[in-house]
Amino acid sequence: xxxxxxxxxxxxxxxxxxxxxxxxxxxxxxxxxxxxxxxxxxxxxxxxxxxxxxxxxxxxxxxxxxxxxxxxxxxxxxxxxxxxxxxxxxxxxxxxxxxxxxxxxxxxxxxxxxxxxxxxxxxxxxxxxxxxxxxxxxxxxxxxxxxxxxxxxxxxxxxxxxxxxxxxxxxxxxxxxxxxxxxxxxxxxxxxxxxxxxxx
Length: 200
Fold this sequence. Notes:
Elements: E1 4-6, H1 15-19, E2 25-29, H2 35-43, E3 48-53, H3 56-69, E4 74-78, E5 93-99, H4 115-122, E6 125-135, H5 138-150, E7 157-159, H6 178-185, E8 191-195
Parallel strand pairs: 1-4, 2-3, 2-5, 3-4, 5-6
Antiparallel strand pairs: 6-8, 7-8
């Protein structure tokens, strides 16, 4: 499918040309089947959205839905997030979303908010670019807040119980994934924070 791209290093620095517009570029990392990427794209046709995941069958599902709905502002990229700098130039990305990532309880360095990953994100984000995190996992969330605090980074927005927070009035935060729905049914509270990483 034309909206699923495997290891597209040739598009580094050329994403706006690829989309055929100058709209902001927004990534969802470890997007799975692309529920959040698709939800964001539906709500914001004035932005371009790219879901990133290494699992081909997962992003195939998201790509199929995007085609069926005629969403022109969506692409899916198959690659390892460790290599994100191979696909985007410095300052090419406006926002990053990390939604319900694997908390990697035994492998701290593989957590998507480990300093190594955050430094890589800094390498592709605009200076005023935002990172958003949604998770059910308390340990992962507290790890992230600790990493940010260690670098002197304050969150712009933060809640440990999104559904009971005034922040939940934002319709973008009401987008749900398959995993989010499962976690909520199990009684887990959804955590969210928004931050910049220009200090990294």
